[in-house]
Specification:
Layout (H helix, E strand, L loop, with lengths): L3 H15 L4 E6 L12 H4 L5 E7 L2 E6 L2 E6 L5 E6 L8 E7 L3 E6 L6 E5 L5 H4 L14 H6 L6 H5 L10 H10 L13 H23 L37 E5 L2 E5 L6
Helix pairs in contact: 1-7, 6-7
The protein binds a DNA duplex (13 and 13 nucleotides) through α6.
Length: 269
DNA sequence: GGGCGCCCAAATA
DNA sequence: TATTTGTGCGCCC
């Protein structure tokens, strides 16, 4: 389920439910997701209290005295907090039970996600990540400067997590539409002015999506703890043959780097 | 830098 | 019933 806004909403939903909660039991319902889930979490996290929850890129970082639990939701992961007696659902692979009688469960049908642990909070997977798109370091000159001499297409470029994190397939399409840039354009062949516009569009699109997701938070701990995708805000993604908001021509679908791209041939140049 | 493949389920043919 | 497609991303060539 996750792109950056969905992970951010998950984080915000978790904060009031699990901060300061003490772990009574850790359950691994299977040994691995994308990678092995460390078995020693069962002993390491026992009786540990959750201190903070942060997000870096699409990783959730849940901090304990003993170290940091690193969770990635992959393509289909979601987290919910339920009463401990709630029957376990299919694909709920990992569970943290708390002394207050609730349980945080990770559901991930495709199992592309990950549950990892780091004593000092650092991790190989976090080392080579680019800047956060909603922070000030992602400024108007950043993409322009990073894109010089890049021959790959601009969509792939903004989806490169070594450059900027958290821009997935949906919001890459949406941002390029909002900025009126053709996704097939070579990254190194886009002007400083257009990158400035694109930068603001990425920030706007992500911020809007987080805002839309915020409305789902009151239901976060209910039966459906999955905030889902905020489809009401999408202008091009999944909109093949639908009408462009601006010029009324048809949105088309192409394939780039084995991923679907949706765009308006007339508006995006 | 491009493409593969991990895995399951829903949509489509 | 069989095939295609999908919100991610590390790894291999």
């Amino acid at each position: 389920m996750p792109e950056l806004p969905e992970v951010e909403i998950t984080k915000r939903g978790l904060v009031p439910l699990i901060i300061n909660q003490e772990v009574s039991r850790v359950i691994l319902h299977r040994e691995n997701l994308r990678w092995a889930i460390p078995k020693n979490l069962i002993t390491i996290l026992a009786n540990q209290k959750i201190k903070t929850i942060k997000r870096r890129a699409k990783y959730l970082l849940i901090k304990f005295e003993a170290g940091t639990l690193i969770i990635h939701l992959g393509m289909s992961g979601s987290i919910k907090v339920v009463d401990i007696k709630t029957p376990l659902l299919k694909h709920e692979h990992f569970e943290l039970q708390f002394n207050n009688g609730t349980s945080m469960r990770l559901n991930d049908p495709r199992r592309f996600g990950a549950v990892l642990f780091s004593k000092d909070g650092s991790h190989k997977l976090l080392d080579s990540l680019g800047v956060e798109p909603l922070e000030a370091v992602f400024n108007n000159g950043y993409l322009y400067q990073k894109s010089r001499n890049k021959r790959k297409n601009i969509k792939d470029f903004i989806m490169d997590s070594k450059i900027v994190v958290g821009v997935g397939n949906i919001y890459a399409c949406e941002s390029l539409f909002m900025a009126s840039i053709n996704p097939q354009r070579k990254a190194g062949n886009v002007s400083k002015t257009r990158y400035k516009i694109l930068t603001q569009c990425i920030k706007d699109i992500l911020t809007q999506a987080i805002k839309a997701g915020g409305t789902t938070l009151q239901d976060f701990s209910q039966v459906d703890g999955n905030p889902g995708y905020f489809t009401q805000t999408l202008s091009v993604y999944g909109c093949e043959n639908k009408t462009c908001h601006f010029c009324k021509s048809k949105i088309i679908k192409i394939v780039q780097n084995q991923r679907s791209t949706f765009y308006c041939r007339k508006c995006q140049t």
